[in-house]
Amino acid sequence: MICRLLGLIVIVNCLLFFTKAEAGVEGTVPPEFQLHSLPGANHTIYLDFDGHVTSGTPWNDNFTGGADFTTISWSQDGDPSTFNGSELNAIYLAWLSVSEDFMPFEVNVTTEDPGVDALVKSDAQDTQWGVRVVIGPEDWYPGSAGGATFLNSWNWNTDTPAFVFNSSLTGIREAVSHEVGRSLS
């Protein structure tokens, strides 16, 4: 958990462990999908582990002939329909690491979907925007890569995600920060 106390940022490193039954209770959202490093910040990095349909972006135009494509949920155990305790813990640790990387900046690293409006820069007066980082396997991107993003896409007026294809915790943590950094340059 990241706490702000008297203007200081303190990281409390606590591991969360859930049994499969706790993680899969219908109608509940595991706390790993409600993590925020700086709620209320104008800028957002959304770590999207639970699958995403990409539509109407340069990814579609350049790689799928304009067709939508789906990235399934990230999974360590091969079952993208649920998250087990180990996967939930890995999501928490990935969020914690990325949050630490972006701590010096006024940005909210979150695992809770903020909605498209919080991710796109709609016009010059818009002060709130960010980037979606879709974390999961791919079958549309040519070659092998740990991730992909468009340079300078951070403030585009479309929900054009960065992608992380790594499946290991270390690979995810490093690739997310790398791809978000590329979206800024």
Please characterize this protein's 3D structure:
The protein is of the alpha/beta class and 185 residues long. The chain has a single domain, classed as Collagenase (Catalytic Domain) (3-Layer(aba) Sandwich), CATH 3.40.390. The protein is built from four helices and nine strands. The strands form three sheets. It has a five-stranded mixed beta sheet, with helices on one face. It has a two-stranded antiparallel sheet with strand order 1-2. A two-stranded antiparallel ribbon has the order 4-5. A hairpin with a 2-residue loop joins strand 1 and strand 2. It is globular and about 45 Å long. The N terminus is likely disordered.
Tag the structure with descriptive keywords.
185 residues; alpha/beta; Collagenase (Catalytic Domain); 5-stranded mixed sheet; two-stranded antiparallel ribbon; 23% helix; globular
Mean pLDDT: 86
Q: What's the N-to-C terminus distance? A: 29 Å
CATH topology: Collagenase (Catalytic Domain)
Query: What is the name of the CATH class?
Result: Alpha Beta
Cα gyration radius (Å)? 16 Å
- The helix-strand sequence is EEHEEHEHEEEEH
Number of domains: 1
What percent of residues adopt helix (DSSP H or I)? 10-25%
Strand order of the largest sheet: 6-3-7-9-8
Strand segment count: 9
Low-confidence regions: 1-27
What is the level-2 CATH architecture name?
3-Layer(aba) Sandwich
Largest sheet: 5 strands, mixed
Tally of alpha and pi helices: 4
- Overall outline: globular
Percentage beta strand: 15-25%
Structural class, by secondary structure, is: alpha/beta
